[in-house]
Design a protein that fits this description.
The chain is of the alpha/beta class. The chain contains five helices and 14 strands. It is globular and about 50 Å long.
Length: about 270
């Protein structure tokens, strides 16, 4: 069970949603205890890199499972098919998945240009994508929103340029433009990359890989939870006093699926929206 929660209340105040919050206090939950009555339980994983069936910790029960990308090594059809079948066997009523920079066949234009760097034989990227996009058991989000248990969940795979992999954007305005697509009123934001300053510090050299423009967007939009991965060594949770930031990376720096899923509970909205 994860207990590490960092409070960063020194951050400047933000504008945005001011209605009564839909979530429990900004902490992660103990997966061994049931959620409070009237709450929706979210279970978060990320960066499984094809090791979803060999995770060191079992996936706790819950209402919604979130996978924040890098479910494969390089978008292999075999790994994506295995993931879909594995997800279909889990008891969660909803499975929300986004891609990450390693899931290169899901970024069609990138794969068309760079496939020879990764594969000896070109894969049918549309067929690979369809394993999730057409699955009856998975909600795949790519710059899109879904209503899950009455809550608004938005997912996006992009991150600032990082070693010339998929779903990369130049830092600055191209990232800001992408994050402006996120609608207001989102309850749970899912991105592959972290925002600046939250779960984004790389072990080698102490480099912060997070996106400044994404942090600005989160401060403006004020989702109750922001789930991501990408930086394996940033695994854990932090809060700025309103939004809880969760780096749910399952694999550690050595690409061992050693990290436990992270769980949180969000109050289900009432008919009046509160």
């Amino acid at each position: 069970f994860l207990t590490r929660v960092q409070n960063t209340d020194e951050m400047p105040p933000r504008t945005g949603r001011t209605e009564p919050p839909l979530a429990a206090p900004a902490i992660v939950a103990d997966p061994s205890t049931p959620p409070p009555s009237g709450f929706v339980r979210f279970v978060c994983i990320s960066d499984t890199h094809g090791l979803h069936g060999r995770m060191a910790h079992r996936v706790p029960a819950g209402d919604v499972l979130i996978h924040a990308g890098d479910f494969s090594n390089t978008g292999e059809e075999e790994q994506v098919l295995s993931l879909e079948r594995w997800l279909s066997c889990l008891p969660h009523a909803h499975k929300v998945v986004i891609a990450g920079n390693h899931d290169i066949t899901f970024h069609t234009s990138f794969y068309e240009e760079h496939w020879q760097r990764f594969h000896h034989k070109k894969r049918d990227s549309e067929r690979v994508r369809s394993l999730l996009t057409e699955s009856a058991n998975v909600t795949y989000l790519q710059d899109a929103e879904a209503i899950v248990c009455g809550l608004r969940v938005y997912g996006s795979p992009w991150q600032p340029e990082f070693c010339n992999w998929a779903f990369n954007l130049p830092r600055g305005e191209p990232c800001a433009e992408r994050w402006r697509q996120i609608p207001e009123g989102i309850d749970v934001l899912v991105t592959h990359g972290p925002p600046a300053g939250h779960g984004d510090q790389c072990a080698r050299g102490g480099y912060h890989a997070g996106c400044e423009q994404l942090l600005h967007a989160v401060r403006r939009l004020r989702p109750r939870y922001h789930v991501f991965g990408h930086v394996h060594e940033g695994y854990g949770a932090s809060t700025d006093g309103f939004t809880t930031f969760i780096n749910a990376s399952t694999c550690n720096l050595k690409y061992s699926a050693a990290n436990a899923p992270i769980v949180f509970d969000v109050r289900a909205p009432t008919e009046t929206g509160t």
